[in-house]
Structures are given as C-alpha cells and as structure tokens.
Description:
Elements: H1 38-96, H2 99-108
Amino acid sequence: MAVRVRQQPYIQQPSMPEQPQQQPSKKVYKKKHKLLSTREKFLYVVFIGIVALFAVSILHTQGEIQTASMEIQKIEAEVQEVTKQNVDLKVSVSELSTYERIWVKAKELGLTLNEKNVKVVPGE
C-alpha cells in the first residue's frame, strides 16, 4: 500500500520595495520597571504594621511584668517587716509574762497571795 504525500506548492511572498532607512526619532521612551507593584506595597505596609503591633504588644507586656514584680517586692518587704515585728512582740510577751515580774507587779498594786481564794478546776 502506497501512501501519497501531497506537497503544497511554495508560495513566494511579494517583495517590498526597500525604503530608505528612517533615523530613529529623538525621543526615546525607556520602559520604566516598577520596583514594587501596588499589591506588593500593600503587603509590605501590612507586614510592617503587624510587626509594629507585635513590638508594641511585647513592650506593653514587659511593662506590666515590671510593674507587677515591683509590687511583689514591696509586698515581700512589708511581710518581712511584719514578721520581724511579730518576733519582737513574742520576745517582749515572753519577757513580760515571767512569774517574777508578775509577782513584783502584784505587790506594787497591793495584791497578796491567798491560797484560800484559789480554786482548782478539775481537768477534763
């Protein structure tokens, strides 16, 4: 079986008469390439805004932490002062409640020891 290939005849384009070369015009427009498109500018502005927002948020949080730690230190100093006062008061109570001191104060006030007035309460 033979296959025929049909050939198309070559068509020659008519030649254009040569025109004298025109000199390029004095105005040459350079194609300006934009560095950033409007979408890219918008995305950069949004990114910078988000970074600034996070920075301000972090600084605010650090300020609150600093304030809280200062308050904690003040409260701890107050607790230490009250603890010291409590210890001093316990020492003074133990000094003032000795039997000898109580007996001296009782004599100064004119009190006497009368064993007949003493009542013993049975322990439960």
